[in-house]
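REQUEST
  id: r-88c1
  op: predict_structure
  target: DNA-directed RNA polymerase subunit beta
  payload:
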Amino acid sequence: MTDEFHKPTQFSGAKFESMMGGDDPAQISRVAHETAHALLARVRFSSDPGVVERLVAYTDDHGIDAVAELWSRASARSLPGALWRIYLMRSLIRQDAQGTSFFYQRGTEMAATIDPVVAGATSPTGPAEIIQLADEILRGVFEGDFGIALDRAAAFCRVTSTGAASVADDVDVADPARATELTTKALRLSHTASEFSACARSWRSGKLD
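RESPONSE
  id: r-88c1
  status: 200
  body:
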């Protein structure tokens, strides 16, 4: 999933260098973890009801590059890595709500699990409903049960993966290149779902750092 987003190579030039400590991987990792923990703690103890909505809409106003530069290099199975992937998921959904909702809806029709229930999108799921789901999941990170938000994100990825794989089967003969593209997309989504699920387990055991 992260391969589908080509993040900018710079963020505020010298400002980013000073904030992140240059190219020192240890410093970058430390800042990523510290900012992730500080953000969650501050929001969860905030008395300002608008702070969550501002964070949900942050990348709409400022782009996703700031979030990417802070957290995208963190391990997928870490707190900053999980936050990065949820923000990225929301961004990708908003970039192609029509296509995403199509794959998700197909996935709900094919799924033999409770994933559509766990994800919690309104059915039938169109562009407006899939955008709403993305916002609900990100909002849940800050004001709900973080583990549940991760479970919902994982379920969304699995359902959408199932849908993309199903459409790949449909077009395999007529358009092999498109089938390959969709199969790759399905695999990435499935892998991201596994990362979200692993983070949810770590969060519940108090080990998600």
